[in-house]
Specification:
Layout: H1 3-8, H2 10-39, H3 45-72, H4 82-92, H5 96-108, H6 115-168, E1 171-173, H7 176-188, E2 196-200, E3 207-209, E4 215-219, H8 222-225, H9 228-243, H10 246-259, H11 264-288, H12 293-310, E5 319-320, H13 326-340, H14 346-363, H15 374-379, E6 381-390, H16 403-416, E7 422-425, H17 438-449, E8 453-456, H18 469-487, E9 496-497, H19 508-520, E10 524-525, H20 534-546, H21 550-579, E11 585-589, H22 593-597, H23 599-608, E12 611-613, H24 616-619, H25 639-646, H26 659-670
Helix pairs in contact: 2-3, 2-6, 2-11, 3-11, 4-6, 5-6, 6-10, 7-9, 9-11, 9-12, 10-11, 11-13, 12-13, 13-14, 16-17, 20-21, 20-26
Amino acid sequence: MNWETFIASKIVADLGWTLVNSIWQIGLVAALLLLTLRIFRTRSANFRYVASVTALLVSVALPVITYIQISTNPAKGPIANEFSRNAEQELRVGKGSALQSQLKDARTGGRVVGSNDAETFAFATLREYLGRRIPDVLPFAVGFWLLGVSIFSLRLGGGMWQLRRYKTRDVVAIDDQWRQAFSELCERLQIVHQVKLLRSTLVETPIAIGFFKPLIMVPASLFLQITPRELETIIAHELIHIRRYDPLINMVQGAVEVIFFYHPGVWWISAQIRREREFAADAAVMEIFEDSHVVYASALANLEEIRQGANQQMPRLATAANGGNLMQRIQKILKIKTEMNRANSAWTAGLAVLLTSAVLLAIFSFNSPGLVNAQKAVSGRKLAIGFVSIPPVDRTENPPKDSDATARLLIEKLKTHKMPATGFLLGGTISDGEKMFPVRADIARLWIDSGFEVGLGGFKHIKLFNTPVDEYIANIEKNERVAKKLIGDQGLPPRYFSYPFLNAGKSDEDKAKVEAWLAGRGYTSVKYTIDNQEWMYSYAYDMARNDNDVSTMKEIRGQYLSYIGKMFDLYEAYSADMFGRDIAQTMVLTPSRLVTDTGDEFFTMAAKRGYSFITIDEAQSDPAYKTAENFAGEAGISWFERWSMHQGKKLRDEPRIDALVWNAWESRNKK
């Protein structure tokens, strides 16, 4: 279609007049909605939500009705009336003066023109002017509208593609415990749809997707970053969205925003819908979970903190739990309980206000740019990490698969999360005692070049339990020479020694000899309070990675993070039981690909538990590390367990290794 055909098209003209009239029509609807919301500002959020949705539907209906009227009866179309058409024709053939006389007679009826008649005449003249001018710009307006619809359609399509990506990539099933809890929650909320709950490593905040086959996506790390009770309220929020058909309405909103992209009134009405929708869902959550307003408010604040840390924006088509104006939502949630108690005494009401203010202050710290977890602000927990060993232990003659890339990725994550870790050198992997193995040495040197401290392990990774003391000390001395050659003048000389396998010998005498030698050389042995079997998970992960088994890798990542969370629980309980406080903890990890790939989730989880990251030197300055212990044996166990055994206390049960990981390790032993 060429331009001449386009501008002469009746459809273009009818569509153009529809667009022109939609400006005042939608503007009027928006004004009426504003008035309605002001008048009924004390009504429920659901009432205001229905009013907003109704306004949006009316905003769509009026232009449709207008187009039907214009296209079926053009002579009665607004402004473009028959009189204006005749007037324009007369003007074009030079009969302007006669027309003006006719126009005057037609408007005054031969009478003397008064003030009211003058206004009528002015309005008629304006109609005549618009009737002549507007048709000339209608094709341009329609062309602009078509271009805008195309661009915004691409935007809408991109959002739909992103949601599909969330549904099909990097998703894993939830565990049996959460599956049961989710089923009970659906029954409690009387959800008639068949809804799926999935863990995702792509999304950073829970979202509800779809309306024919709805599902809820929850970040895999979120199961560890907030409490189960908080997470349950967030999942309930998403289920309520599904029960209310909010994803469908959200999709309709997206389509309307595409068609009427040019009208600010549509965007304002749509924003009111999203705002009131979240308020309505929050109110429904509060009806289901009585006396959980503080828990729910805290969960929303934590969600926003996580989202801001990830800097991820959800597509507009997704209904996310932390949508809308978060501060207003939390204020409303906390206000619900206050309003319920208005009939109580003034003292009770005042106390409620104080509690509300305290919670808001805890959730929104004015001293930080983002939202702050209340637990993090008050707990004061501290954590130091030692990585055993650098470079990673490898039983082949070649460097570990992607070990250089893994080391660089891990170092970057340590820097990002400001973790002053210490890496313990295993000299036998980078040298034969005389000459260096260049590739492996360069991997270990990355640690030094990045400013991290290097400590000593053994030249060979051997246990003191089944090694003569003199041979064991000679093994350390050999590693010391390799470490000094590697570090040179670039880094801090080694200060710490990490017992291989955390084994400190089969007798107090053997241990005392080694400790005396270490002290004489200026070394301090590390006492790890958080021991764990991460190395087993890392082995299973490496095997899956070698086989390009992406599904198993995802499963192991989720299991590992869950396992580490349980280990935190275990040793925090030891700390509370033995010292009545949170002592500075030390944790041992390996610089594996699993630890690297889950680094962001791990450090975020630790931070959510209230930990700040410190050096081993700072951690072991805690008086708790002077606690007596006399453990001797083949096992390598946490110092909490050693202290407990010395005090005659019963040891706590450790979390079990997941079956998938255990089977992989058993297969290795059989081989």
